[in-house]
Amino acid sequence: MAESRRAHFPARLPGAAPQAAKAAPKPAATPAARGHGIDSEAVRARMVERLRALGGMEPAALAAMQAVPRHLFIEPALAAQAYLDNALPIGHGQTISKPSVVARCASVLLQALGARPARLLEIGTGCGYQAAVLSHIAGEVYSVERIRALHELARSNLRALRLANLRLLFGDGSGGVEAGAPYDAVLSAAAAEAPPAAWLAQLRPGGVLLAPIGQPQRLMAYRRQASGRIESWCVEDAHFVPLKSGLV
Ligand code: SAH
Questions:
Q1: Is 135 a catalytic residue?
Q2: Whose CA is nearest to atom 26 of ligand 1?
Q3: Cβ proximity of 125 and 150 under 8 Å
Q4: Atom 11 of ligand 1, nearest CA residue
Q5: What pLDDT digit, counting tens, does each position of 43-58 carry?
Q6: How confident is the model at residue 12 (pLDDT cuts 50, 70, 90)?
Q7: Tell me, which fold does domain 36-240 have in CATH?
Q8: ∠ at Cα 102 (97, 104), nearest 5°?
Q9: Residue pair 150/169 in contact by the 8 Å Cβ criterion
Q10: Per-residue pLDDT for 106 more than 80?
Q11: What is the pTM of this model?
């Protein structure tokens, strides 16, 4: 791990940018109306209804999807697509995950654990969107990213949300993150050929790893049993970017 930082956020209201002085002042925008001009509460509520209609989603996962403004994690030119079920480019050849994939992964973890995870590790922070969603369903979230520019982008995207239970780390997550282990859950946003041993080793007994694995990719779940034995099952087909090693 090259660097570890806790996300400390300034005591400032989200989106509280100074307003330009105007001759005829308009009423102050509500928080929901800020951010690329999107009435994001209402648009997000419609996205959540579409996610609920897919079936099998956990109420806590849907509440987290409602709470996090996805349009703040993508570039303004793509903001109109923020609440469609699309993966969108975030630079450096990477993408922000589809809302249905983020909601599905959060739901599968909640169902497999039977409770909210006290401590969760995300591999592949990207722009930080899924990390923000996970911070609403877990006690404490560690998220690691190997591309420094994306780690910095995530820090900047997340600052205004002031999520005190989220720790962002710059590093190669192939070896997990020893600092926070053992975890109730490990969730990878990048696909590996086989589950790295460290991800399984850093689970507490009863803990669950959810990761896209193999070629063709499958979203796989692995539970570490009290005996140390690993139980696994396939959740669904998957299409994630590949897990890579080293730092960029
Ligand atoms: N969680 C993101 C999805 C990011 S895409 C979201 O909210 O939408 C997957 C990310 O995994 C990419 O940013 C990629 O750089 C990162 N990644 C790939 N291999 C990695 C590794 N070994 N360690 C850490 N991050 C990795």
A1: no
A2: 124
A3: yes
A4: 124
A5: 999 999 999 999 999 9
A6: very low
A7: Rossmann fold (3.40.50)
A8: 135
A9: no
A10: yes
A11: 0.87
